[in-house]
Amino acid sequence: MARLADYDISTRHTGVIKKTDRLSPEGTEEVRELVIEIDRPDFKYELGQSVGVIVEGQHGFGNTVHHRLYSIADIPAQKGKKPQVKILVKRCSFIDDFNGEIYDGIASHYLCDRKVGDEIVLTGPFGLPFDIPEDKTSDLLLIGLGTGIAPFRALVKHLYKNVKNWEGKVRLFYGARTGLELLYMNDKNDDLTSYYDEETFKAFQALSPRPHWADPIALDYALEQRTEEILEMLNKANTHVFVAGHDKIGGMLDKAFTSIMGSKEKWQNRKAELVAGKRWAEVIY
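Structure (tokenized):
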């Protein structure tokens, strides 16, 4: 499991905001797409890798540096000597479990407030979060929550454009509170539909039953609705499960997979087998 503390942030780069577009309508939760130019011509990266953003200042628990990872959602066409990356940012807030206060997400608010021409501090790039197996008959179960869609958007693009001739099933489950949060699966950026004609690929959207801040996302329900197919995939020796999203996804998936497998014990044993066989990988934000 990838954690922010595992990443080396000693090497830093200067990035310049070249473009910032709001994808979501005014009056809804803000989602922005940023194009960042890196002030290093030798900056090498691949679609699906991540870059880190450093926000310096007086943060909680005495920290003076806040580090947040963002998946490289796309690579704009080269327009000059300096490389550019595109990232997706949602302005986030969270409720403190202890005092009930609402706090702004440090990196998300910082990035959403940046203007064209502003400089930011970057780290990375960091490796591809998920290793695609060499066996092209492998089934891939991809599960993303919220902005966890970003690495899978890149993975699916890489799978069908670069790896090619994939024979195993690719099933993407993506959970969000509202249709507006489906990000790259909306009218403006519906690029995942480019792969709907691939025989091996299917994507399933899961929305909250009621689009309000605290409402649960029906990702577990979407998974349980396809119990037969998922159970078949989990029973195969070459199925890989990739998970991305905030930490709430863990409990949600345990609930869904316990139902699918028939008991908590069966699911715990199966997950242990997947982890031991390096067929389970997750990126928790």
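The longest strand covers residues 12-22. The domain at 9-126 is CATH 2.40.30.10 (Elongation Factor Tu (Ef-tu); domain 3).
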